[in-house]
């Protein structure tokens, strides 16, 4: 498995202001997306999956408050990039497919136009060429600054927490008060010193990288200029040639042929500098074909209502693909579709992912779907990631009682019957429970689960779970029979397949 991270979410915490109080939707989650992999985020409705994906896309509702954390992509914290820059990333480098294809398509605009519109936003080929040429060095430079800011912010947070803790203390006498005051002073000084040192270290490095970047920018500008000049010179000489041909033409037929060739030459020249509507249409039809739309030329001119649900979702996928994104986020893309169509769309996403080497975040409430898609899995409950591991680890060696409950509730392949519904309902996130939020619904809950939040216990280098059951003092408990039985059967089937 590749260890190349394309996206990294760290300590992300998101609240919403509501009339009834502050709702804690996402609580200190961290995960990495690796190149070419699919990370599935799975959890019941309301666990914070969509809020997480919207934060990555920069489309959170207005009442959202980002309490803490960062989302690092190509050396930039997506939570900090300007609206302007984000616009380039959203839908361009990171594409998204939502649950309801209808809401992401405009009902009164022809399908073809909706696909080509997205492409024509970034139509200046010279600009794209320039950006590609400088992109690596730009990332190095920005990475350094971002790292510096994060390190300083983390240290400042520690300082703030230290001060808050002391301020909350009840002082018994003046001496203690004075000591604490002194301690705060010292911590502040130490922070200042840390900040200064960190800045110095990083700024020196940043300076070097900036010099490299400026050099690259200069070269890139020159390269783009030379390309344009070369293309233009070639165009001129070809036009002149054709002009001569036209003048020398002895018949009407030859004349019109030369004229046509001249028109074509002009079009081709424009095509080299910028993406034209005609070219966009050609590409749109190619992508429609790629996502399995029959007769794309005909379909290009139709409206969304003329498509079935599955076909509409294919169109949405096509739109996301036209920008050649690096990351694809799919938020319950098949929930609104019936089962057979669901399977086809999942297959399509898997195929495209492999062909284009995309990195994919796939969100679903259905562990059954996860089994077909995931390389890695993050199980979310009440705004937290409670278990995180490779698909194999989550399916064959699950550790968290919530993951067990989810696994027990997957419908049986043969009977299609849900084996065991998870008892109770998720908590009200305005008042998230203390300790392990799943305790109230778990038959494995211990006293400590109601008092103290479990840390992420390490199971392996790639597998973590936040449950006190992994503490060395915890009694040994076995996962539910229904889960271990299934694992046993499926391992046996695997063995038979081999
Ligand atoms: N704009 C909003 N204002 C208030 N609460 C919200 C808002 N958006 C989402 N929430 C709440 O955040 C929590 C997580 O929601 P969401 O991420 O949509 O869940 P899911 O895992 O089903 O996708 C839920 O309790 C939801 O009600
Ligand atoms: Mg959702």
Structure characterization notes:
Among the domains are: 94-123 and 278-322, no CATH class; 142-273; 394-460 and 469-497, no CATH class. 53% of the residues lie in helices and 16% in strands. The chain is built from 16 helices and 12 strands. It has an 8-stranded mixed sheet with strand order 6-7-8-3-9-10-12-11, sandwiched between helices. Helix 4 (111-121) packs across helix 8 (277-290), helix 5 runs antiparallel to helix 6 (174-248) and helix 6 runs antiparallel to helix 7. The longest helix has 75 residues, at 174-248. The mean pLDDT is 90. Magnesium ion (MG) is lined by residues 49-50, 331-332.
What is the overall silhouette? globular
Q: Structural class, from helix and strand content?
A: alpha/beta
Approximate strand percentage: 15-25%
Low-confidence stretches: none
Query: Order of helices and strands, N to C?
Result: EEEHEEHEHHHHHHHHEHEHEEHHHEEH
Note the total helix count. Answer: 16
Oligomer: single chain
Strand order of the largest sheet: 6-7-8-3-9-10-12-11
- Biggest sheet character: 8 strands, mixed
Overall pLDDT score: 90
What small ligands are held by the chains? adenosine-5'-diphosphate, magnesium ion
Number of strands: 12
Range of helix content: 40-55%
Radius of gyration: 28 Å
End-to-end separation:
22 Å
